[in-house]
Amino acid sequence: MKAVIPYKKSSAKSRLSPVLTRKEREEFVELMLNQVIDTLKEAGIEKIDILSPSMYGLENMKKANVLLDKDDLNEALNRYLEQAEEPVMIVMADLPLLSSEHVKEIISTKKDICIVPGKGGGTNALFIKNPSSYRVRYYGSSFLNHCSIAVEFEQNFEIYDSFFAGTDIDEPEDLVELLIHGRGAAKEYINEKFRLEISRGRVRLAPI
Fold first, then answer.
1. CB under 8 Å to 202, separation ≥6 — which residues?
2. Can you give the pLDDT at residue 183?
3. Which of 87, 94, 117, 148 has its CA 20 to 30 A from that of 189?
4. pLDDT, tens only, 104-119
5. 136 contacts 146 by C-beta, under 8 angstroms
6. How far apart are CA 95 and CA 47, in angstroms?
7. Are 172 and 19 in contact (CB under 8 A)?
8. Residue 186 CA neighbour count, 13 Å, CB half
């Protein structure tokens, strides 16, 4: 089996722009990408592809194979699945709370497909045993899309419900979860810039 990580560094994570500059966001997404790659390798997945529209930030990547595809995310991933001859795990690059144990549990599913929901109806990961018999449709309520597509293609599926695997980093408040629950270089990077502000209400992010 192998894993594929969709990735774009240029002007990444615009929704974090209220708290991080463009340069900081690009540095941060690179750290998260490398952390996800390391997590996959710790789980025993050695064949890892990065699917990107550009080589920007990937010029020196040695831990994974880089595939360039300038098409829309769905078109690029569906072409990738059509050509795959072994099970594929699609993993988003912004999952610094994902652990190797999560990955091992996901890929050990007895079903044809394992779907990992993200916040707001998104999909953080997909494990597909028969990739040529499945299609993806990201954006919008992609989690519901992927459940429907599994039914349409007569693939049985399970949902892997996990707070940690389901926490992708898109909004400033997501950085709070990273500081509370995270580990590794991504957390260290944010820890140098922010602290947790604790009051009677929710824990908030505050600049150092």
1. 176
2. 94
3. 117
4. 999 999 999 999 999 9
5. yes
6. 19
7. yes
8. 32
Q: Give the three-class secondary structure for 198.
A: coil
Q: Are strands 204-207 and 48-52 parallel, antiparallel or unpaired?
A: unpaired
Three-class DSSP category at 80: helix
Burial class (CB in 10 A: 0-12, 13-18, 19+), 106: buried
Are 174 and 168 in contact by the 8 Å Cβ rule? The answer is: yes
What is the separation of C-alpha 201 from the centre of its chain, rounded to a whole number of angstroms?
29
pTM for the model: 0.96
The tokens for 181 are 């629950």
DSSP string, 11-44: T--GGGTTTS-HHHHHHHHHHHHHHHHHHHHHTT
Q: CA angle, 117 as apex, 119 and 122 as ends, to 5°?
A: 55
Reading the block at residue 43, the tokens are 């789980």
Average pLDDT, stretch 41-48?
A: 98
Q: Give 43's pLDDT tier (boundaries 50, 70, 90).
A: very high
Could you give the percent of the chain with pLDDT greater than 90? 96
**What residue type is 119 in one-letter code?**
K
Q: How far apart are the first and last CA of the chain?
A: 43
